[in-house]
């Protein structure tokens, strides 16, 4: 495509966006418009090839950063811009739909789902809440590989002691998988619960966020003596 044609196409695409809005664009046009701010080549063809390879803009944005940057079709500027999409989405979501009280498994799932938007790989998060289940502090305890995330029980205990709270939530994500817990997830949850109990604290719930669903340990009943009836003020629904 000649330079004049590319310039004209980009102008027409921006005009379509300005006049009719984002929803009026096809998925290919949406990606093409985004790429036009970071690529000098044929962004229409590049958008077509990327969607053919990855399937959707969502899948492209979730692609491994290093893998994306190794793609000869994608410049470093373009890969950074693409990866910014979910990060900006998370920021906007947290500001507009801020959840401050985790008094149910539903609210906990929503809270942690928003925190993992745009996460690269697995992360383990701990959140402290007060007696009314209002969020006091949240911290990322560990980053892991796509299949496993590790955190020491000492780190968890240190956070608990410094927070001056007695109720805590754990959460981690399975970016490319289902939210159903593995055997190691179950064992980890039991050990965290016991660690907090020895400090006079309680693990309200452990939430797992998958690619398309969320899982609550307390709601599931997988762990004995770890049900909603044992924690006043927290409901599973």
Chain-averaged pLDDT: 85
Task: Identify the CATH homologous superfamily of the largest domain.
Answer: Cytidine Deaminase, domain 2
* Main sheet specs: 5 strands, mixed
Strand runs, count: 5
| Shape field | elongated
**Multimeric state:** single chain
CATH fold-level label of the largest domain: Cytidine Deaminase, domain 2
The number of helical segments is 10
Structure in a nutshell:
By secondary structure, the protein is of the alpha+beta class. The protein has helices at residues 3-20, 27-35, 43-54, 57-61, 65-70, 76-96, 105-115, 153-163, 183-198, 217-220; strands at 123-129, 135-143, 167-173, 202-209, 214-216.
What does this molecule look like?
Keywords: Hydrolase, Metal-binding, Metalloprotease, Protease, Zinc. This is DNA repair protein RadC. It comes from Ruminococcus flavefaciens. The protein is an alpha+beta fold. It has two domains: 3-93, no CATH class; 99-230, Cytidine Deaminase, domain 2. It has ten helices and five strands; from the N terminus they run αααααααββαβαββα. It is elongated.
């Amino acid at each position: 495509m000649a330079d004049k044609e590319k310039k004209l196409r980009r102008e027409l695409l921006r005009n379509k966006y300005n006049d009719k809005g984002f929803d009026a664009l096809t998925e290919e046009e949406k990606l093409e418009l985004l790429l036009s701010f970071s690529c000098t080549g044929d962004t229409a063809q590049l958008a077509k090839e990327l969607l053919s390879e990855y399937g959707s803009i969502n899948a492209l944005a979730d692609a491994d950063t290093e893998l994306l940057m190794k793609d000869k079709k994608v410049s470093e500027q373009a890969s950074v811009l693409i990866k910014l999409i979910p990060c900006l989405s998370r920021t906007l979501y947290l500001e507009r739909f801020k959840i401050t009280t985790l008094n149910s498994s539903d609210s906990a799932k929503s809270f942690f789902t928003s925190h993992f938007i745009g996460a690269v790989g697995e992360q383990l998060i701990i959140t402290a809440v007060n007696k009314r289940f209002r969020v006091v502090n949240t911290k990322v305890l560990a980053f892991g590989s796509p299949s496993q995330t590790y955190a020491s029980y000492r780190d968890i205990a240190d956070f608990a002691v410094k927070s001056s709270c007695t109720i805590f939530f754990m959460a981690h994500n399975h970016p490319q998988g289902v939210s159903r817990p593995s055997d190691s997830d179950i064992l980890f949850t039991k050990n965290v619960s016991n660690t907090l109990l020895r400090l006079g604290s309680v693990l309200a719930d452990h939430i797992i966020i998958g690619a398309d669903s969320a899982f609550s340990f307390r709601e599931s009943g997988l762990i004995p003596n770890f049900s909603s009836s044992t924690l006043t003020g927290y409901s599973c629904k």
